[in-house]
Amino acid sequence: MEVKQMMRAMVLKAAKEKLRLELLPIPQPDDKQLLLKIQASGVCRTDLHIVDEELTQANFPLILVP
To answer: CB-side exposure of 2: number of CA atoms within 13 Å?
Structure first.
């Protein structure tokens, strides 16, 4: 039996909504990619502009914080 590993992610479904903590499958890298384990992360100001709908060309849903 294969156990899929999951990751916690803060997901933004649309502008002006609250970030939601979700459990998502860990993506599998292809031959030219690396998979890194992140211990801590922050939100950049650009992400906050998307949340506040000051940047309108975002493709939702977005994962803003691992």
So the answer is: 4
Cβ-contact 15, 58 below 8 angstroms = yes
Q: Terminus-to-terminus CA distance in the chain, angstroms?
A: 27
Measure the CA–CA gap between 29 and 35, rounded to whole angstroms.
6
Place of tokens 């906050």: 48
| pLDDT tens by residue, 43-61 | 788 888 888 889 888 889 9
What pTM was computed for the model?
0.70
- In DSSP notation, 4-62 reads PPEEEEEEE-STTSPPEEEEEEPPPP-TT------S-----HHHHHHHTTSS----SSE
Tell me if the bond preceding 61 is cis, omega within 30° of 0: yes
